[in-house]
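Open question from group meeting: does this chain pack into something compact, or does most of it stay loose? Before anyone orders reagents, we agreed to write out a predicted structure and look at it together. Recording both the input and the output here so the notebook holds the full record.
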Amino acid sequence: MRELWNIFVSFFKIGVFTFGGGYAMVSLIEDELITRKRWIESEQFLKLLTLAQSAPGPIALNTGVFIGYKVRGWAGALAAVLGIVLPSFVIILLIALFFADIRDNCYVDAAFKGMRPAVVALIVAPVYKWARALGPAGIAASVAAALLVWYVGLSPIYFIVAGAAAGIAHTVWKNRKTIEKP
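Structure tokens returned:
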């Protein structure tokens, strides 16, 4: 029961102190679960994050489900989901109740403008860390895919499917070479 509470509290903290959406939460999730709690290894986190990006729905919520499940099964997944959703739900509820009174407030507007650089930093930091692990070929493929999505208008789905196929083919090819050696 204590472990479930720890999962809930960890994801609750992430949910409370994160602005800017799921991708902004990723670096906080990584720091909390790998560095502080040591619940999973960095390599496992990247695999679960890839899975979370592939599944429909918000990335932070999907990541919470997969990591909570990995740590403590279905109960861990539920604890993580409640922890990550509850702060946003309460904050949105409060904003909805009082938004009419504060929407034209210059201080509220200034606070949101001031948070933008921090949100960008929260998104860029994990991207930089992951890019270093990709190597030159992976970075080149990522940049090419991004440019094709932005400027040509190709759907990112094609690149996700192609990346998955390439990863499977590479693993099969790599394992085949290992098996063939005497």
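Observations to bring back to the group:
The longest helix spans residues 106-152.
The chain has a mean pLDDT of 83.
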